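A.,

Following up on our hallway conversation. Structure tokens first:
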């Protein structure tokens, strides 16, 4: 035990050096201080760069402000005079009656807003959007994006916006169209929209025209013709006086003049009756009797024809004085019964069959005339080289009878169409 104590006593530890502890502590603290220094240096560098950028922008703004204050036109490629000239070149004429191009950009229940490159937008009221009566502008095809020519008709004092019209332009075009149709002497369709004690009011090309009762070749009353269409011709077209006079008599006379015996015309089925179908031919409504529909028996007309059908018929007879026309589809059948089995074939062969029919009629008439001359030479008739039987001295004009003087409606025969056919 004593020897062990002696051994420990003999051991000596070197003294702890204060400098060494200080060096070790310094060794551990150096990296942290270095990192903090680098972060601080970077932050200062960024702050200095931002400050310099701000100073630069501030200087630019100050220089720009100074130039605008002292020399506003420096560096501008045009002068004040050039600017005013440009304004004059694009000066907008807003006088009433001026036509302008515009683009619809919005619609509402009362009309449409139009951009006409003026100081403010313009407005197209629904009542000025069309020559026809409409409730919304969309009914006239006016939608956003549509570009059209308008005419200025007024100004809204509340917001200084301009009021536009398409209706006025359409009226001008309608009058021009009516003058053209009158010059061409064509037959047009007019819809009856009203009447008074003097005649009917009919709409043609969007214009309201007057048809005197003396110019109506029908015994129908104004109430019966209301909302119906019938053929018309122009008598007087005067835009300055806003006067449009029409005649149904002239139109009917021209239509009837084209209805030669044996001719093929196109008609529309108006209605069906147990005894036949009423067919409209250019405003002349007449009966196609059930016996003249087909060679085969037709037990039910509705199985062959329907209202609204378009068909071809051949004229068998025409009484111009009484305005009655006999029609037939039976004579156009290539084979008996084709109108029941294949009406399309009948209409395709109509002209060919009618030509054959006319040739047979002409031959029969020539033979009848020859027999008459053979047995009655004292009759005073002569047979031409064409097989036409005529008086030796005819009082009729060479060009035929004038059919334009058709009697007025109150002088027409009152016999019904059914009875006549």
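Then the amino acids I'd put at each of the 421 positions:
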């Amino acid at each position: 035990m004593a020897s062990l104590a002696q051994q420990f006593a003999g051991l000596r530890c070197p003294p702890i050096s204060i400098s060494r502890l200080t060096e070790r502590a310094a060794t551990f603290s150096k990296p942290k201080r270095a990192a903090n220094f680098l972060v601080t240096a970077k932050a200062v560098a960024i702050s200095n760069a931002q400050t310099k950028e701000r100073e630069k922008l501030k200087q630019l703004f100050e220089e720009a402000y100074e130039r605008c204050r002292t020399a506003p036109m420096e560096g501008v490629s045009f002068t004040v005079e050039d600017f005013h000239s440009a304004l004059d070149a694009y000066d907008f004429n807003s006088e009433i009656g001026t036509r302008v191009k515009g683009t619809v950009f919005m619609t509402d229940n009362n009309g449409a807003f139009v951009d006409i490159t003026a100081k403010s937008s313009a407005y197209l009221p629904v009542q000025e959007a069309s020559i026809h009566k409409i409730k919304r502008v969309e009914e006239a095809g006016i939608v956003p994006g549509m570009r059209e020519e308008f005419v200025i008709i007024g100004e809204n004092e509340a917001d200084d916006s301009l009021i536009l019209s398409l209706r006025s332009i359409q009226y001008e075009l309608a009058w021009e169209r009516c003058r053209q149709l009158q010059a061409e002497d064509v037959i047009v369709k007019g819809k009856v929209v009203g009447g008074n004690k003097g005649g009917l009011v009919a709409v043609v090309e969007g214009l309201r025209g007057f048809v005197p009762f003396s110019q109506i070749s029908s015994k129908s009353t104004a109430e019966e013709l209301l909302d119906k269409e019938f053929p018309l011709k122009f008598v007087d077209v005067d835009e300055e006086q806003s006067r449009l006079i029409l005649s149904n008599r002239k139109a009917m006379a021209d239509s009837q003049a084209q209805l030669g015996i044996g001719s093929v015309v196109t008609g529309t089925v108006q209605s069906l009756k147990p005894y036949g179908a009423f067919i409209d031919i250019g405003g002349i409504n007449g009966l196609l009797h059930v016996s003249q529909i087909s060679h085969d028996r037709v037990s039910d007309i509705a199985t062959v024809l329907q209202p609204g059908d378009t068909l071809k018929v051949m004229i068998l007879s025409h009484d111009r004085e009484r305005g009655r026309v006999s029609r037939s589809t039976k004579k156009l059948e290539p084979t008996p019964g084709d109108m029941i089995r294949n009406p399309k074939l009948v209409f395709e062969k109509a002209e060919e069959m009618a030509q054959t029919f006319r040739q047979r009629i002409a031959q029969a008439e020539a033979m009848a005339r020859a027999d008459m001359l053979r047995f009655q030479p004292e009759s005073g008739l002569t047979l031409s080289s064409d097989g036409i039987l005529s008086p030796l001295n005819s009082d009729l004009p060479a060009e035929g009878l004038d059919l334009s003087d058709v009697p007025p409606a109150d002088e027409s025969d009152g016999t019904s169409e059914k009875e006549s056919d």
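Residues 254 and 404 are 7 Å apart (CA to CA). Curious whether your intuition agrees with the design.

B.
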